[in-house]
Design goal:
Layout (H helix, E strand, L loop, with lengths): L10 H30 L5 H42 L14 H67 L5 H16 L3 E12 L6 E12 L4 H4 L3 E3 L3 H9 L3 E3 L10 H4 L6 E8 L4 E9 L7 H32 L9 H18 L3 E8 L2 H8 L1 H18 L5 E6 L2 E7 L3 H18 L16 E8 L6 H17 L5 E3 L12
Parallel strand pairs: 10-11
Antiparallel strand pairs: 1-2, 1-6, 2-3, 4-5, 5-6, 7-9, 7-10, 8-9
């Protein structure tokens, strides 16, 4: 609060009293001097008296000026200097207060104002600092949240990779591994569809002129409305997006499938909308599989996600490679090395399983026992390498002549057995005649056939059927073996069913 100045201390009153007193003193002095001089020297002293009176008045005025300057000018100058410093930003300056008049009161008020400004400035500085600290904390919090989000995303990625690895190693069955990977990725990544295409070697053309080329077949599917129609779908290298990835070995990202003709939408089985990514799966520098990722939104896949897909491909590569290696090892233990057919062990396992199924569901089960005619004579005359070649050719023809669900295995030597689930005797005899005719027709061009009686490669086939001919698997094989010997006795190159009269001797088909 500014100090109030008493009327007796007012600088205005002081100046008025000083000036008035000086004037009165001057006037009185002038009159006194003038009167004295007139008495002594009335005529000559008049001007001198006036001059003295003026000098006296001037002296009094100088005294007044000095008093005013000392009492008012100096404090005001100090006040102006302080205000100038304050204007320049020096709010810590203060005005010395030397009197309790209006100038002193003004100086005191100005000092209080500077103190208030200083306090306010300190408060502002403190608030700015607090704001700066709060901003820093907010920035750190936002950065922490961003880092937390990034860490959470990376943890989710690692968790997904671990799940893929764990599920892929939970089974040695390739189909189980692929199904587990498809389910884990589809659920964790929020995909509309996810497919795994596995490389297979396709063979085109007749024997001797056949060409091998890779195809990629859908072996696992997630999210498809009709998965049974998608499974088994094939893509050649260079065909569609997946085919191009298979050919180049480079991932492809399509932000909007509607604007890319390479996207074939799985033969029209899925909607042609959204985004699509295809990633190659490499194992030992070879593309062994393809991973297809689909979402319904346009531009739905970010660069970090695509990088994650590549990491998934690396994990899947080892899982698929190991599962395939296990299948090969298992196949070697159940496969005849010369013909590629199942071996005796596989025959026994499959026959036991099919016999149990036939017995449980009361369905027929037939067995074909196939023997190459005059095979020992062929080996003796043409040599064992030729005999092996003929045996491989006959095995190939038999596989092509029967159904996929039928089992073809080498029983031993030149003997081959075919298991025909759900086939009665008449159906089995028809299949046997189909095999016999194809062997005769397709093996005819072989030059070594000149070493054979009749000039052709032929087979004799015996047929036995459960339950009419045997009550157990071992007996079924024995009855089919008896039937093939009956075919041999009947002249070879014929089919004989157990319990059925053998046909007449035939030298050709």
């Amino acid at each position: 609060m500014p100090s109030s100045v008493a009327p007796s201390r007012s600088i205005a009153r002081k100046i008025a009293f000083a000036a008035g007193g000086a004037s009165i003193v001057g006037a009185v002095t002038d009159l006194v001097v003038y009167s004295v001089l007139l008495r002594t020297t009335p005529s000559k002293a008049g001007p001198i008296a006036v001059a003295l009176a003026c000098l006296l008045a001037l002296g009094v005025g100088l005294v007044v000026v000095k008093v005013v300057l000392s009492r008012l000018g100096v404090p005001l100058r100090r006040l102006v200097d302080a205000m100038s410093k304050a204007e320049e930003g020096d709010f810590l300056t203060r005005v010395p207060v030397a009197s309790d008049d209006e100038v002193g009161a003004l100086s005191t008020a100005f000092n209080r104002m500077l103190a208030a400004i200083t306090n306010l400035r300190v408060s502002v500085i403190d608030q700015e600092r607090e704001l700066e600290i709060a901003s820093e904390r907010l920035g750190l919090q936002e950065a922490l949240q961003a880092k937390s989000g990034e860490l959470e995303r990376r943890l989710q990625e690692r968790r997904l990779l671990f799940d893929v690895l764990a599920t892929s190693t939970s089974s040695l069955s390739l189909d189980d591994v692929l199904t587990a990977i498809a389910r884990s990725c589809g659920e964790a990544l929020g995909l509309r569809e996810f497919g795994i295409l596995l490389r297979e070697e396709a063979v085109d053309g007749p024997p001797g002129l056949a060409r091998h080329h890779p195809e990629f077949v859908v072996r696992a599917a997630y999210g498809f409305k009709q998965p049974s129609q998608v499974l088994g779908l094939r893509r050649h290298a260079g065909e569609g997006v997946s085919g191009e990835v298979a050919r180049t070995g480079q991932a492809i990202v399509i932000d909007d499938v509607q604007n890319d003709d390479r996207y074939l939408s799985y033969g029209g089985l899925v909607e042609r909308v959204g985004s699509f990514v295809c990633v190659p799966v490499r194992f030992r520098d070879e593309v062994i599989a393809l991973l297809d990722f689909t979402r319904s939104e346009v531009r739905a896949f970010s660069a970090p996600e695509v990088a994650l897909f590549g990491a998934i491909g690396e994990v899947a590569a080892h899982a698929i490679g190991n599962a395939r290696l296990f299948e090969r090892v298992q196949a070697l233990s159940l496969t005849d090395e010369l013909t590629g057919l199942g071996n005796r062990r596989q025959l026994e396992e499959r026959l036991e399983a099919e016999f149990e199924r036939a017995n449980r569901f009361q369905q027929p089960l037939s067995l074909l026992f196939i023997d190459l005619d005059h095979f020992k004579l062929l080996n003796d005359r043409a040599g064992h390498p030729v005999g092996d070649s003929v045996l491989r050719g006959v095995a190939r023809v038999i596989r092509q002549a029967v159904r996929k669900l039928d089992t073809v295995a080498r029983f031993g030597g030149e003997e081959i057995v075919v298991i025909l689930p759900r086939a009665d005797k008449s159906e089995a005899i028809a299949v046997a005649n189909k095999v016999r005719e194809r062997v005769f027709a397709e093996m005819m061009p072989h030059p070594e056939s000149g070493a054979q009686p009749g000039g052709a490669i032929t087979v004799s086939i015996g047929v036995a059927t459960y339950p009419s001919d045997a009550a157990d698997a071992r007996t079924l094989v024995s009855r089919a073996d008896e039937a093939v010997y009956a075919a041999k006795r009947a002249g070879r190159n014929c089919v004989v069913g157990y319990g059925v009269a053998a046909p007449r001797t035939r030298a050709s088909a």
